[in-house]
Design a protein that fits this description.
The protein has 255 residues and is mainly beta. The chain contains 4 helices and 14 strands. A hairpin with a 3-residue loop joins strand 4 and strand 5. The radius of gyration is 19 Å and the shape is globular. 27% of the residues are buried.
């Protein structure tokens, strides 16, 4: 058995007046994206709960959606705990700045590997070498704004929307191969309420949707929060690694 999960899949019909607009960068949409992502990057620690929906394709082009819930705790620069439960997968990520462990809570097996010393580097390592993507990983990087705004050729403001118990401003952006949307609260800290990514390079343009709630900027964290302790009966296995061509291999990338 492998703990490897396929990476998250990266067109909404917009109202007529929006479609009619010429390609442009709305300065408010750009400003709010910058404010939200830079505020999130500035946080030394936080926790958040998310509801995630992933679209995929079955045979004959049948488009389907899978859901799961996740709770995420971050302590920068190098500690992360992410637990997710729902369709397809029940698992927990433990990263303490040295070791990344993935525990399948439903099957009670786990794999561990040495990982780089920062969350940014660990997320890159997990994606490039293990084929793994953490829940809401785009928003877990520090200094993510320059990457998100790079090559954006369209940014629009779409008005207000209710997300959970908050009134949010809705913004949409387009760059080559991908569209993304962000909902930011009208009042209070600009912590994202919802994030949607549309993969325009894949057939049927699948979406990944993340709805965020219960942000906590002072979570209760101890030294053991990010340490994995194998539960009774847990079986250890090995990660399947990816080589430079994207093929799975059974060896350490450092070798």
């Amino acid at each position: 058995c492998s703990l490897v999960m396929a990476p998250l899949l990266l067109t909404l019909a917009l109202p007529g007046p929006v479609v009619a607009q010429s390609l442009e960068i709305d300065p408010i949409a750009k400003k709010q994206l910058k404010a939200s992502l830079e505020y999130l990057s500035s946080l030394k620690q936080f926790s958040v709960e998310t509801h995630n929906s992933i679209e995929g394709l079955l045979e004959y082009g049948l488009k389907v959606q899978f859901d799961f819930n996740a709770s995420i705790t971050v302590q920068r620069p190098g500690k992360l705990l992410a637990e997710r439960h729902g369709d397809l997968v029940n698992q927990a990520w433990y990263y303490d700045g040295k070791t990344l462990t993935l525990h399948s809570t439903s099957e009670n097996y786990f794999a561990s590997t040495t990982a780089p010393g920062s969350i940014n580097e660990m997320l890159d390592f997990a994606r490039e070498w293990l084929g793994l993507v953490a829940p809401a990983s785009d928003l877990l990087y520090s200094d993510i704004y320059p990457l998100m705004i790079n090559r954006v050729y369209l940014a629009v403001s779409l008005g207000k929307a209710d997300i959970g118990d908050k009134v949010c401003e809705h913004f949409a952006y387009s760059r080559p191969g991908v569209d993304f949307q962000l909902w930011v609260p009208v009042e209070g800290p600009p912590l994202p309420c919802k994030y949607v990514v549309t993969d325009k390079l894949s057939f049927a343009h699948p979406n990944t949707e993340v709805v965020m709630s219960n942000w906590n900027l002072t979570p209760e964290i101890t030294d053991s929060t990010f340490k994995f302790v194998a539960p009774d009966g847990a079986q250890q296995t090995e990660f399947m690694m990816l080589d430079a061509s994207g093929n799975f291999i059974q060896q350490d990338p450092a070798e």
